[in-house]
């Protein structure tokens, strides 16, 4: 493509495009083998850092004299090597996908605005850095929560217990327990992709680019589903927060669907692209947006509000505000992604999900017959097929085989006017005298036999002038294009996506309201629906607990009570 510089993709991908796929798009599953291995390393590196960062941050954080947990700024520098290595691996993965991507999509777009490759790559790289920084900020938040409860003794716990008592459901007495549970939920983001992208034991997968050993570029994953290397890379891109790969969806499957529709008019194939895009959207919106971004917004705002209530503006909360801002920015990107998926679904449902394309279809093959009645001169048999009760719309006939009792027709046709449970009638006739040589019937309850049938049917009921014979008819019956089932799955996925999106919006709005309420309530705390002013007896109880333990802390807390009053 003219809008793609040659340095943007490796030589081996260019060779495949020129030699093996001239004049047509390179299948991504055949070009991204080396990128899959790098994406696995990137995923392992990032999630290992997610495990180790909270422990290291907890040890590095300190406590002020009044019990405020401080976060040293150099913690971000500790994350820098992980960020540099992961971004390098991400760029390498991008080079293997960018040529197949632009061959199908024709151009690069940001918010539906055409841009150059350089601008697109820069913006997606920046978004990828923010994605990974958001993961690190969540790790720092867990460490800050645990350190706050250590530094502030019972202050945060008592404030939290009072707030939790006003909730309609019972909450844990320790705020850190909720934060730790939400942090563990984050790991669902990597469990599902690992199950989907890991081959079962004993399978040999060929990761070299090209068409050689094509069968070994597909594998069964740990969930028992067949995967190609292109889908594997995209799923690993979701697990490792590679925005350069994430933003290729749904643009890439959308362009592939248009390409397939223009070439084949195959509704099942087009709907399969939509279904896969919606499935990934469910994973990202459900596992990332709801279980990470919105939950982190709510919890981080809650801790920020409690710290502000207890310590006032005496300590800087810049890092906490940056962490909340990153989560809000990621939430905005999820809204944009949902809007794109909704548009994709609307376009495909308007063009493909129409009655003429969504009607159930049968592929019926008339292979041949054996043991037909003999005659002098020999019969010239052919076979007719029709759906009982719908003969005019469904009837078709095979070719004629002359002078034989073992004809071989190998005729295939599609029947659209059919419903599950209809009866197919096969009639073998003589072309010369229109003598019926035998009949057979087949009940189309295909779901009971795995969706298809291939075998012999006994022929009975010939004309009296045709001598009886033990004839058999060989046929195959199968669902041709099960577009109805694909359409049903697409509608189901879109419904689930809407439900998740509504939950995501409500939780995000709750977090925003809590953030706004923190400043609106001033000396009080925002609960679910209003400002909750904590009683001074709560502070006195804390004061009595400190009197016997830390005289210096008592003086500080007395001053705090006076300021609050």
Describe this structure in words.
56% of the residues lie in helices and 14% in strands. It has 17 helices and 16 strands. A hairpin with a 5-residue loop joins strand 1 and strand 2 (69-70). Strands 10-7-14-13 form a 4-stranded antiparallel sheet, with no helix packed on it. The chain has a 4-stranded antiparallel sheet with strand order 9-8-11-12. It has helices at 11-20, 33-60, 75-105, 117-151, 155-164, 175-185, 188-197, 229-239, 243-246, 251-264, 267-311, 318-351, 355-358, 391-394, 483-520, 536-547, 551-564, and strands at 62-63, 69-70, 108-110, 113-115, 218-220, 226-228, 362-370, 381-387, 396-397, 408-415, 423-430, 436-443, 452-458, 472-479, 525-526, 531-532. Helix 2 runs antiparallel to helix 3 (75-105) and helix 2 runs parallel beside helix 8 (229-239). The chain is an alpha+beta fold and 565 residues long.
Largest sheet: 4 strands, antiparallel
User: What is the rounded Rg?
Assistant: 33 Å
Distance between the termini: 70 Å
Overall pLDDT level = 82
**Backbone structural class:** alpha+beta
> What assembly state would you assign to the polypeptide chains in this entry?
single chain
Number of helices: 17
The main sheet orders its strands as: 10-7-14-13
Helix proportion = 55-70%
Number of strands: 16
Instruction: Characterize the overall form.
Output: elongated
Strand composition percent? 5-15%
User: Low-confidence parts lasting 5 or more residues at pLDDT below 50?
Assistant: 539-554
Question: How would you describe this structure in keywords?
Answer:
4-stranded antiparallel beta sheet; alpha+beta; 17 helices; 565 residues; elongated
């Amino acid at each position: 493509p003219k809008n793609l510089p040659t340095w943007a993709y490796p030589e081996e991908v260019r060779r495949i495009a020129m030699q093996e796929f001239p004049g047509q798009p390179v299948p991504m599953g055949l070009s991204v083998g080396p990128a899959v291995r790098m994406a696995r390393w990137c995923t392992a590196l990032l999630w290992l850092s997610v495990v180790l960062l909270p422990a290291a941050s907890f040890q590095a954080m300190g406590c002020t004299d009044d019990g405020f947990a401080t976060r040293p700024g150099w913690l971000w520098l500790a994350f820098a090597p992980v960020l540099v290595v992961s971004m390098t691996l991400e760029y390498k993965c991008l080079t293997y996908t960018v040529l197949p991507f632009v061959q199908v999509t024709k151009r690069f777009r940001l918010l539906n605005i055409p841009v150059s490759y350089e601008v697109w790559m820069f913006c997606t790289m920046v978004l990828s850095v923010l994605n990974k920084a958001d993961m690190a900020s969540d790790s720092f938040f867990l460490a800050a929560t645990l350190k706050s409860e250590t530094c502030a003794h019972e202050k945060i716990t008592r404030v939290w217990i009072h707030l939790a008592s006003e909730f309609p459901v019972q909450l844990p007495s320790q705020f850190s327990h909720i934060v730790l549970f939400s942090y563990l939920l984050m790991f669902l983001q990597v469990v599902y992709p690992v199950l989907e992208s890991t081959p079962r034991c004993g399978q040999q997968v060929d990761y070299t680019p090209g068409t050689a050993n094509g069968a070994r570029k597909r594998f069964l994953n740990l969930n028992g589903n067949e995967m190609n290397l292109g889908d594997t890379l995209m799923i690993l891109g979701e697990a490792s927060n590679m925005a350069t790969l994430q933003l290729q969806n749904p643009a890439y499957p959308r362009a592939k669907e248009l390409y397939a529709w223009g070439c084949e008019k195959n509704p099942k194939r087009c709907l399969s692209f939509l279904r896969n895009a919606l499935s990934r959207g469910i994973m990202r919106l459900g596992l990332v947006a709801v279980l990470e971004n919105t939950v982190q917004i709510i919890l981080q705002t809650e801790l920020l509000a409690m710290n502000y209530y207890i310590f006032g503006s005496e300590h800087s909360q810049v890092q906490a505000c940056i962490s909340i801002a990153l989560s809000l920015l990621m939430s905005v990107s999820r809204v944009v992604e949902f809007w794109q998926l909704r548009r994709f679904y609307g376009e495909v449902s308007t063009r493909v999900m129409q009655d003429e394309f969504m009607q159930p279809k049968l592929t019926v093959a008339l292979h041949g017959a054996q043991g037909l009645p003999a005659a002098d001169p020999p019969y010239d048999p052919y076979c007719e097929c029709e759906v009982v009760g719908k003969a005019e719309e469904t009837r078709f006939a095979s070719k004629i085989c002359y002078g034989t009792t073992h004809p071989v027709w190998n005729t295939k046709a599609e029947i659209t006017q059919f419903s599950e449970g209809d009866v197919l009638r096969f009639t073998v006739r003589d072309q010369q005298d229109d003598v019926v040589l035998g009949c057979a019937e087949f009940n189309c309850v295909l779901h009971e036999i795995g969706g298809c049938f291939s075998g012999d049917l006994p022929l009975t009921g010939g004309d009296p002038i045709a001598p009886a014979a033990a004839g058999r008819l060989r046929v195959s019956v199968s669902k041709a294009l099960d577009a109805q089932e694909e359409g049903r799955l697409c509608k189901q996925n879109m419904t689930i996506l809407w439900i998740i999106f509504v939950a995501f919006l409500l939780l995000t709005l709750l977090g925003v309201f809590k953030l706004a309420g923190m400043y609106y309530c001033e000396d009080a705390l925002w609960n679910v629906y209003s400002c909750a002013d904590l009683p001074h007896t709560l502070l006195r109880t804390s004061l009595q607990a400190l009197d016997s333990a830390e005289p210096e802390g008592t003086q500080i807390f007395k001053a705090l009570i006076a300021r609050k009053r």
